[in-house]
Amino acid sequence: MSQSIEIKDNTTTSVGVLIGLSAWSITFVTLIWGYMFYRVRGLLWLEDYIDGPIYFKVALNTGFLICSSFFLHLFLQQKEKKLFLLGLSAALLFIIGQWNLWQALSMRGLTVNQTIAGSFFYLLTGFHALHIIIGMGVLIGFYYLSGMAQTKAITPNFKFVVRFWDLLLLFWLILVPLIFILK
User: Fold this and answer.
1) Contact, 165 vs 72, CB < 8 A?
2) Rounded mean pLDDT of the chain?
3) N vs C: which end of the chain shows fewer Cβ within 10 Å?
4) What tens digit of pLDDT does each residue of 158-179 get?
5) Pick from 74, 84, 64: which is nearest to 172 by CA?
6) Which CATH number describes the domain made up of 11-41+52-181?
7) Per-residue pLDDT averaged across 11-23, rounded?
8) What's the Cα-to-Cα distance from 52 to each of 27, 84, 181, rounded to whole Å?
């Protein structure tokens, strides 16, 4: 009368991903808390560096990230390689756009070591961009290493990476008003 308990990989992966996302989220929230603390106390903040062209770059980057998430979700439903590639391409455009934004702000005098505002700006947006790059690598890795490129079978691990991608989008949608809109 022995009963065997089968533990599915999916459950173990779910717990691992949940723990990882929780730790990452706590780090991100802590950085935002620090940003808000110094934002309230700061006399000189980002308003002096941001104008119409900068807002346009931010809006464009936000659109790229939203499109990336949208295409990845369509890929989960339709399993068409072109949707996966469109999602990655939009993410790459986001990274290029962020680099362009950083260069534009740097040319206006907003640097990492110039003000606390610059330090927090580059820390938060750099932390986010780093995770976008890591997420792109993980998406590509799961896509090709799991055989999804040949079989069109979506693995649970790939779905978890898309959830991570959604979390990156959510955090970006929190960062944009905090950094660029609220005065």
Assistant:
1) yes
2) 84
3) N
4) 888 888 899 999 999 999 998 8
5) 64
6) 1.20.120.80
7) 71
8) 31, 32, 12
pLDDT over threshold 70, residue 5: no
Only one residue has tokens 């890795």, namely 141
The full set of domain ranges for the chain reads: 11-41+52-181
Is 118 in contact with 111 (CB distance < 8 Å)? yes
For the chain, first and last CA: distance in Å? 68
Please tell me the number of Cα atoms within 13 Å of 40 on its side-chain side: 5
The residue type found at 113 is: N
Pick the more confident residue, 50 or 132: 132
Q: For residue 76, give both structure tokens.
A: 């989960």
pLDDT surpasses 50 at 6: no
Please give the structure tokens belonging to residue 9.
């990989």
Predicted local distance difference test score (pLDDT) of residue 12 = 64
Q: 98 near 129, Cβ under 8 Å?
A: yes
Q: Are 93 and 64 in contact (CB under 8 A)?
A: yes
Angle between helix 156-176 and helix 9-41 axes, rounded to 10 deg: 10
Alpha helices, DSSP H, located in the chain: 9-41, 52-78, 81-107, 116-145, 148-151, 156-176
Quick: pLDDT tens for 123-158.
999 999 999 999 999 889 888 877 776 777 777 778
